[in-house]
Amino acid sequence: MRRSSTDESAYRRSPSPEGKEPGFARGGPFRRYSSLYGRAGAGDGGDGGDGGDGGPFFGLHAGPGPKAAQARYTSPKGNKYVVLYLDLSFIFLLELKRCGMARGCLQGVKFLMFAFNLLFWLGGCGILGVGIWLAATQGNFATLSSSFPSLSAANLLIVTGTFIMAIGFVGCIGAIKENKCLLLTFFVTLLLVFLLEATVTILFFAYTDKIDRYAQQDLKKGLHLYGTPGNVGLTNAWSIIQTDFRCCGVSNYTDWFEVYNATRVPDSCCLEFSESCGLHAPGTWWKAPCYETVKMWLQENLLAVGIFGLCTALVQILGLTFAMTMYCQVVKADTYCA
After folding, report:
1. Mean pLDDT in the chain?
2. pLDDT, tens only, 190-203
3. Better pLDDT: 43 or 108
4. What is the predicted pLDDT for the residue at 3?
5. 285 phi/psi in degrees, rounded to 5
6. pLDDT in tens, 270-329
7. Are 171 and 323 in contact (CB under 8 A)?
8. What angle do CA 229, 232, 238 make, to 5 degrees?
9. Is the pLDDT of residue 107 over 80?
10. Quick check: helix, strand or coil at residue 30?
11. Does residue 84 register a pLDDT over 80?
């Protein structure tokens, strides 16, 4: 049974819940969807031919009108400004955090660098004090070489202590002031010393035989200065070595025969010390050569010598590490927090 035209007309003209025609009567939801996104893309604030096209799909609610559409268009600009502000604030906070972390690392490395160089400087003071004491009380103590008369234990300690004090002082001032120039100077100087020590060690082990022959010849020449005026240090050194190590001469007790032009040795070569005991028969003298005896003693204590050398190298490597780390931290702090 067909519906009458009157009923059909009444059905089509039934009002919407808000008193307006439904969206189906004016083009359906597809027209409303295209109109909404067309206005958003075009950005002209219009309604595509109808000022009331806005709101949810399928025509359930009436559009807000041209003013609401204009407001809906301009709101993204405000959102962009807010997002940009939040991004800048976040970046600024990250930079502050990075700057704070750099400063914190710098302060930690600064404290370690200062403490290390303070100990370095105090060690140099101690070595310098021992050298001055030896020079004042024992003269040129342990001067055994005739080719290098200034190469005494006292002079070596004085020079070494002064150099260590100078390096430690530069490191301390560079750490306190955070001075890049002083830190770099400390690093370069300590690196040169480390490389020089490594080179000398390698050359020593590479030319051990030649060094042995040259050292024995030089020590035999130094025997002729024994007991002469102005060579108190050499005389005391030979007396201490021959007494403590129970040896006589460089390679044999006969080395002293050339010095005295007679069959005699210093009194320090005697098995039982007494006045002019060196004039007695060879049976009352030590027979062991001093050079080989001291060399064997060093070989027996090679572990202690090696540990001392490794500790010295470790201290220098730590100094190099602290200096370069602090230098890099100072550069980073100046870059981020300038």
Report:
1. 73
2. 999 999 999 999 99
3. 108
4. 46
5. -110, 160
6. 988 888 888 878 888 888 999 999 999 988 888 888 898 898 899 889 888 888 888 887
7. yes
8. 120
9. no
10. helix
11. no
**Quick one: CA dihedral 101, 106, 112, 115, positive or negative?**
negative
User: Six-digit token pair at 140?
Assistant: 């040129």
**CA dist 167 to 124, 163, 241, Å?**
9, 6, 34
Q: CB burial class (10 A; 0-12, 13-18, 19+) of residue 160? A: middle
The tokens for 24 are: 């189906």
- Give Cα separations from 119 to 186, 192, 196, 237 (angstroms): 15, 20, 22, 32
DSSP assignment of 60-84, as one string? SS----HHHHHHHHHHHHHHHHHHH
Structure token pair of residue 69: 């559409």
Cβ neighbors of 293 (< 8 A, separation 6 or more) are 245, 246, 247
How many other CB atoms are found less than 10 A from the CB of residue 176? 13
